Amino acid sequence: MSITGPLPASPLSASPLPPVPNAADGEPDRRTAGLTIGVDVGGTKVAAGVVDGAGTVLAALRRPTPGHSSVEVANTIADVVAELSAAYDVWAVGIGAAGWIDADRSRVIFAPNLAWRNEPLRDEVRDRVGLPVVVENDANATAWAEYRFGAGRGRRDLVCLTVGTGIGSGIVVGGELFRGAFGIGAETGHMRMVPGGHLCGCGNHGCWEQYASGRALVRLARQLAADDPAAATVMLAASGGDIDGLTGPDVTEAARKGDPAALRCLTEVGHWLGEGMASLAAVLDPDRYVIGGGVSDAGELLLGPARDRFAETMPGHGHRPMAEVVIAELGNQAGLVGAADLARI
Fold first, then answer.
1. What is the pLDDT of residue 25?
2. Using an 8 Å Cβ cutoff, are 321 and 281 in contact?
3. What predicted TM-score, i.e. pTM, was given to this entire model?
4. What phi and psi, each to the nearest 5 degrees, are found at residue 12?
């Protein structure tokens, strides 16, 4: 297989590039041309796709994440890349990984759901596939995809929040993805909101994601159903009466049907979401928040309370512009689309 176009400079030696335009800025520049492969690696699946310069996925594959062996994960990534590159002429690979990535976009410092500890993932995959490879945090890749091709088009400063089991986040400032000095910035889900609060997987207590996530939604729903089953009849019916079997989708569906307990759960989680966004506004002052992840399927049942609390608690509220809060557009493909696009730059 041939590789079209010149190989990009090594990310270790390349000089700083100007901000990459998003799709609303007109024709993409030379860095956004050609086909690349994006790979989204999570605790349960490896999803990969061939992506063009307009963010269109031309072909996609999905494999189970092979247990917790770092070697097997690298082999699985290499296998899907090989299968896709056999059918398409691609020139680079971007990997979005659920973990902390170093500033060189080469090494996974730590991944909570995989056996990656200071793992040289870029080199391991590059040596297997013979293509340039970059590694990026999966939430950063999602944010980049929404900035370039989704709900962030036309904005230069945005925060993308993936509200799932926890809170993943990515930040674009002035058209550039913010990574921090060591590559692991934008972990906003681990801002401490409640000192001495619920224990978080990061080891601290009271992190934002313990109050504004799918985990928080389910915990609250089970608590309310146990305390007042009569107010949670629709929600309990969805789980067959099993309080411990309640899931986030059960809560959302019950709330759409008017279940009082389910509505209360989404309102409280939405309020915590807005509270955190107000804190971020004090530091970053973005003009748009893009909300994705499974919990965002609740739509305005979540975003309405989030906007209300955001407006109430934003520093200087009533005397400054307020950022828009919108639903993400790219869904489950955002991570691989963003990873593929970041491989170009």
1. 57
2. no
3. 0.87
4. -80, -25
